[in-house]
Specification:
By secondary structure, the chain is mainly α. It has 9 helices and no strands. The longest helix is centred in the middle third of the chain and has 25 residues. The radius of gyration is 21 Å and the shape is elongated. The N terminus is likely disordered.
Length: about 230
């Protein structure tokens, strides 16, 4: 009797979870909480005392965590600008101390900036779709920018202008009409904003903690409750 009740509750929960729509999270909610601070203390204790690979939580590791965290959000350097990264450099060698104190504000500050930049880039892309494209111009678009330096604001605009133009051309080659192309790309870009705005505090915490664990050993990961 009890087993059947448990099975029914589990099934009911899974069905509703599968059909649930992930809500948009207001920026004011993107703040660390006490449970995450406590979880940080526990994770550090486990890693430092029981993980097979030991690595001192120092400035060198802090720098690796910093780079890993940025890469987890913006691997192709499509959103952050040089000015953003220059500002964030103040955190490069302090993340070890922050983790040691279970202080997570820096991670959330950086993510909130990322969220803003995504919205700005999508707005720029949508504006580009309202114009016309000159495909007679001889220019190229670099897909992989992971090894490039972080772009300035103006360079980011140029990167996204070419990205939209390239996306438009690829669909044009499939014989879609221009109206169909604009509709398809509008939905594609808007999904970028939607997926980013759905990140909650647990998701951000997972990103940051994984930047820490992967800097120690690439196959060590933390999963948020939702994951």
């Amino acid at each position: 009797m009890h087993l059947k009740l448990i099975q029914f509750c589990l099934l009911f929960s899974l069905v509703h979870t599968a059909g649930a729509i992930t809500p948009i999270v207001d920026e004011s909610e993107l703040l660390p909480n006490k449970d995450q601070e406590r979880a940080t203390e526990i994770i550090l204790h486990i890693i430092e005392n029981y993980h097979y690979r030991t690595r001192l939580l120092d400035d060198e590791l802090s720098s690796d965590i910093f780079d890993s965290y940025l890469k987890s959000m913006d691997p192709n350097k499509s959103f952050f600008t040089y000015a953003d990264i220059d500002e964030f450099e103040n955190y490069r060698y302090s993340l070890d101390d922050a983790l040691d104190d279970a202080e997570l504000d820096t991670a959330f500050i950086i993510f909130r900036r990322y969220r803003t930049r995504v919205q700005e880039r999508v707005e720029f892309a949508l504006a580009q779709l309202k114009g016309e494209f000159d495909f007679s111009v001889d220019e190229d678009y670099q897909f992989d920018r992971s090894e490039q330096i972080w772009p300035t604001d103006l360079e980011q605009n140029e990167i996204w202008r070419k990205r939209v133009k390239n996306d438009f051309l690829n669909l044009k080659l499939t014989d879609k009409t221009e109206d169909e192309i604009r509709e398809t790309l509008s939905k594609r870009y808007q999904r970028l904003t939607t997926s980013t705005l759905q990140f909650n505090t647990s998701d951000i915490f997972q990103l940051f903690v994984n930047a820490y664990t992967s800097s120690i050993e690439p196959h060590t990961s933390y999963f948020s409750p939702r994951t």
